[in-house]
Hints:
The protein has a single domain, classed as lambda repressor-like DNA-binding domains (434 Repressor (Amino-terminal Domain), Orthogonal Bundle). It contains 5 helices and no strands. The chain has helices spanning 3-17, 22-29, 33-40, 48-57, 62-65.
Amino acid sequence: MNLNKKLGQRITELREGQNKTLEKLAYESGISKGGLSEVERGLREIRISTLIKICETLDMPLKDFFDFDLNLD
């Protein structure tokens, strides 16, 4: 699995854990719904500034975002 897919899955997991829709997270983060959808599906690389916005919206420190198995095998 590639890095983009892993990061996208993590965002989806965290978003769903807070019962937020894709549309709501995109709106609250100030990013497009289509862009967020592509990131979650691993079709687009995420910029660190976008990831920071998402973490802020989810009320999560950036360092905690990476608290998961990043094994890419």
